[in-house]
Design goal:
Fusion Protein Consisting Of Minor Coat Protein, Glycine Rich Linker, Tola, And A His Tag, Chain: A, Domain 2; 2 helices; 113 residues; alpha+beta
């Protein structure tokens, strides 16, 4: 995965307080695209499950920059999640700078379908 990050700069801070809560709510609202990625991979790998962590920066404009994902050994799922996350847009960070977000997604096949 390519990480778009400036050299010699400290990592951006993580969101805190209300900003963290608002970002979490926004991610949950957008998580259908992540679930679609997983559902697509389940057709080929019916036993695929586990925890995936999406890491990304929210730029000063609110757009996502520098997304990565890891945790599940399925490159196609990771790539799909990164592509989905890079489309997201948030409120502009209150600091006027960037924010670094790590967000876990737990995947397990639904039973009874």
């Amino acid at each position: 995965m390519i990480i778009e990050e400036e050299v010699n700069e400290p990592p951006p801070p993580a969101p805190v307080g209300d900003e963290r809560r608002i970002i979490g709510e926004h991610i949950r609202e957008k998580s259908a695209t992540i679930q679609d990625c997983y559902a697509g991979r389940l057709r080929e790998r019916p036993t695929l499950q586990g925890k995936l962590v999406a890491r990304f920066d929210i730029g000063p404009s609110g757009k996502v920059i520098g997304a990565t994902a890891d945790g599940i050994q399925d490159p196609q799922l990771l790539l799909c999640v990164v592509k989905a996350v890079r489309q997201w847009e948030f409120q502009k960070p209150a600091s006027g700078g960037k924010l670094r977000v790590s967000y876990p997604f737990k995947f397990e096949p639904q039973t009874g379908h």
